[in-house]
Amino acid sequence: MNERCDDVINCVDFSDELFCIDCPPEAWRCSSGQCIEANHRCDGYENCNDKSDESNCATCQINAWKCRTGQCIPYFQRCDGLIFCRDESDEINCKNFDILMYVFDCRFEVSL
Ligand SMILES: [Ca+2]
Ligand SMILES: [Ca+2]
């Protein structure tokens, strides 16, 4: 049972990492029960094995961009020609200049 609550999912149904109570107060708990540092929530990088830390974000942390789905991705993945949002929203409206200086990273726009 030492694989229980070790932040590694061993059971197909995540049950070995569910309901673990060893998350420190400053940690955030993934849907799977895994603990991550709270400041990794909605920072654009997937830290939970089940990616739940980047889902259903009310706001994304600075340097992250929020997909229409509530998913956060690193800001440089916005308009980079590669789809990271599950709804592809990071690659639409890329001519929008209120995206600040990041619009200059839109190298695939010239052919539009
Ligand atoms: Ca994260
Ligand atoms: Ca992208």
TrEMBL record:
Principal subcellular localisation of the protein: membrane
Its membrane topology: Single-pass membrane protein
Annotated GO biological process: vesicle-mediated transport
Pfam families on file: Ldl_recept_a (PF00057)
Keywords, alphabetical: Disulfide bond, Glycoprotein, Membrane, Repeat, Transmembrane, Transmembrane helix
Cellular component, GO, one term: plasma membrane
Segment forming the signal sequence: none
Subcellular localization, as worded in the UniProt entry: Membrane
Cystine crosslinks: 23-35, 30-48, 42-57, 60-72, 67-85, 79-94
InterPro entries referenced in this protein's UniProt entry, alphabetically: LDL_receptor-like_sf, LDLR, LDrepeatLR_classA_rpt
Protein name according to UniProt: Low-density lipoprotein receptor-related protein 6-like
Organism: Biomphalaria glabrata (Bloodfluke planorb)
Taxonomy of the source species: Eukaryota, Metazoa, Spiralia, Lophotrochozoa, Mollusca
